[in-house]
Amino acid sequence: MFRRRWSGLPPDPQFPSDLTELGYFVNEIDEIRSIANPDYYFKYFINKNERWNERQRFAFNEAVGKIIHERLTSLGLETLRLPLGTPPTEPHVPIRISSTLAQAKRVVLFFGESCQESGVLSHRVIGRRGGINKGSLVSLVQGLKKQQAEDGKKDEELGIVLANLGELWWWPEGKRGLTPRGRHGVPMASCVHLGRWHDKKVNEIPLNRSPAQHVKCVFESVVLGGEEGKKVPDDAMLDIIAVGDGADEVEKYLDQEEVWAKIGDRLNSFVNLNGNYSATKLTCNGFKKFMEDRARAYMMHNSPLGTPLAGPAGNPGMLGFTTYGCPVYSAGPTVLYVETMLIEIMPAVLEWICQVAREGKNYKNEEVHVYGDEVPKEDDITWANWSEDKMWGETMDDSNVDVEKLGDMVAKVVTEKEGLSATEGW
Fold first, then answer.
1. Quick one: 331 and 401 in the same domain?
2. What is the pTM for the complete model shown?
3. pLDDT of 391-423, one tens digit each?
4. Which of 10, 72, 182, 394 is 20 to 30 A off residue 62, Cα-Cα?
């Protein structure tokens, strides 16, 4: 008989967490390119075995994360471990705060998606066109500091808090938290193991076991309490920017009477970037009034950036969810993903929260005039009612297809779309 030992399984692939050793470099426009061919960006599919691709991506993300956090540190942000007082080797979540937070008169809190690493907005921008700064929170910090300088205010009067809703799965060997996807890229006993078992005692972080708990921990450890010198001053006003499910968790937390009584008077503004929490679920009257008067939401839509789409009560004529409880605006036709929304519309977001901060208590959202989307007519061809009968006027089969006519039609499309002649196209 044959006996297969554990040692006989193929080993897990190993990759260095260094861009240069992985074969990449950062060029003069801050984009990551291949050393072998500088015209190429990051290449995910390096092997037919998906485990090799996952392990390379894990190492690549680690290398990029080091660069991002070095840049955040150079911009004056330091790391704060939650729960407060946790040693570096024990389960904790690192967030970023301004080193001069105790002197701030205005503080911007950012809550991202629960699928992103600390400091990351979009890996599809970091690893491709756009570059590291643009695809990370470095661009947000730079934008806020630039705006502060243009207003003639001292840099230390602006505080920044970057929450970390993604890295809530503790990796004991690496002594750090990982995202839901990142946890599957950690080294395993072999490349054919199915994955790591989730052990609540080992992998969960106290007071930060879920995005909802993390949002609560950030507010209670930095805004409503915290260590001396590393907490938001009691007289500082707050601006909140939240993305996707991070926005949902922030709304759920603020929509509590006991929470609103402590923090309601300190909120300047709230920007919801494509969240999905319905205003019909809100129960706190104070928070509902705040959402109507001093909050706004952006959603993906083909209208130009800033086009009003719905009022606080929503817009029944609009295709899609609009019941945000605040005015809703289009993020513009170029935004195709939630993770790239803030990247695309950052100037508009920062300008608005700055406007609210300038006007103070006098600010109130203006009434918006909205219209509904154009609903397709019954005979319009859409993805929902497409059929060969509607496309060609009759059922296509070998007996009624005019091949010559069909070929001319396709050749015409090729000519118009790709600039090719019919001869070159075929």
1. no
2. 0.85
3. 445 444 555 556 666 677 666 666 665 554 444
4. 10
